[in-house]
From TrEMBL:
Identification of the protein by name: Futalosine hydrolase
One of the GO biological process terms: menaquinone biosynthetic process
Single GO MF annotation: methylthioadenosine nucleosidase activity
Function: Catalyzes the hydrolysis of futalosine (FL) to dehypoxanthine futalosine (DHFL) and hypoxanthine, a step in the biosynthesis of menaquinone (MK, vitamin K2).
Residue intervals of the Nucleoside phosphorylase domain: 32-216
Cellular component GO terms, alphabetical: cytosol
Enzyme category, top tier: hydrolase
Amino acid sequence: MNNFGRILIMTSVEAERDAILRGIESDSRIDVKLAGVGPISAGIQTAKALAADEYELVINMGIAGGFADKAEVGSLVIANEMVSADLGAESPEGFITLDELGFGASTRVEADGDLGEILLEAIKAAGISVRVGNILTLSTVTGTVETTSKLQHREPGALAEAMEGYGVAMAAKEFGLPVLEIRSISNPIGPRDRSAWRIKDALVTLESASKVIAEVL
Ligand SMILES: O=C(O)c1cccc(C(=O)CC[C@H]2O[C@@H](n3cnc4c(=O)[nH]cnc43)[C@H](O)[C@@H]2O)c1
């Protein structure tokens, strides 16, 4: 279809960038840049890239943790919303979001739903297991059953968590650009067990999804 002009893909680390570059092959419309790890670095690096060049679409891609029974390791998640899940205040009654605190800044950015739908169908057609739902952005990787269930209770629409989506989305929003977050699930969210991370498989899925993106957008 190739409707888009220039697309900016932001990803955290070199292994993710290399997988995406293998997928998009030599599509000169698409730049893949490193965001670093965490929402602050991601916001700064995305804003820098958008200030330096003209783009029509911003996509945050990478690996992520998946909530049990919602996003299996090896599958892909396309975000409905990029949600900052730790921006707010704790209280004895529970977590209070920035919006609820009355600071007037949203902790959620909506993804471009039409583009998300187009990609969902194309990625499914390529034989990749994929779902659409919210993706949480956290500065700290979840590592206990307690935090996992608190997050699930607070954000029942969340399928996955990563560390950059909200930062990338805020920068894209500032520049008035549509934004997507697409994540390949490398590990289950829960008690920290690095041996359960399937990074190689997740990078292969990321590469396949990138190929579809270059073909479809
Ligand atoms: O060790 C490696 O070979 C390697 C290769 C590619 C990527 C990594 C990373 O550690 C990427 C960090 C990146 O991954 C996201 N992520 C993945 N799982 C989770 C999670 O359960 N909770 C939060 N974030 C997760 C995150 O966006 C990090 O920036 C290593």
